[in-house]
Design a protein that fits this description.
Structural class: mainly alpha
Mean pLDDT: 91
Strand content: 5-15%
Strand order of the largest sheet: 1-2
Number of helices: 8
Low-confidence stretches: none
Length: 150
């Protein structure tokens, strides 16, 4: 089991790589079979290469070292090994197929900044200022306020 410092390093590496949406490890069939499934942006080759350069690669090695014939994530044959052991998803659905991890990170930063603005007395005063009434009344601005309060 990883400690908190390992988890922090792993999360920092995943954020630095910036393409991983989701990953999971599943042990099944009475602990005899293992599945790793992930969702990522970009090419599979780049995905594996990026992980091999970080602490995540070390995690891959620890986990997959229990799999028969795993050569290590930095080994030149690792991609062939993964390809030989992969199974395509029967069904895959994404709620946000057009959003990359980088776009999601940006959306979070914009939302955080906007929420900070919404909480200031200056913003409330600007909303109530008659000089801004025309802008505040536009459908786009009303939608923005409505989405912000949802």
């Amino acid at each position: 089991m990883a400690d908190a410092a390992d988890d922090e390093r792993t999360h920092a590496a995943v954020r630095q790589i910036g393409t991983l949406h989701d990953a999971r490890h599943v042990i099944f069939d009475d602990d005899t079979r293992f599945m790793f499934a992930s969702v990522f942006d970009g090419s599979w080759d780049t995905y594996i290469d990026d992980f091999a350069k970080t602490v995540v690669g070390d995690r891959f090695d620890k986990v997959f070292s229990h799999s028969e014939g795993f050569p290590g994530v930095k080994d030149p044959g690792v991609k062939d090994w993964f390809l030989a052991h992969q199974e395509p998803a029967g069904v895959f659905v994404s709620a946000y197929p057009d959003l990359t991890v980088q776009k999601i990170y940006k959306d979070q930063r914009v939302d955080d900044a906007f929420q900070e603005v919404l909480d200031t007395p200056e913003f409330r005063a600007a909303l109530e200022n008659p000089a801004n009434a025309e802008l505040v009344a536009t459908p786009a601005f009303q939608k923005l306020l409505e989405e912000a309060s949802a």
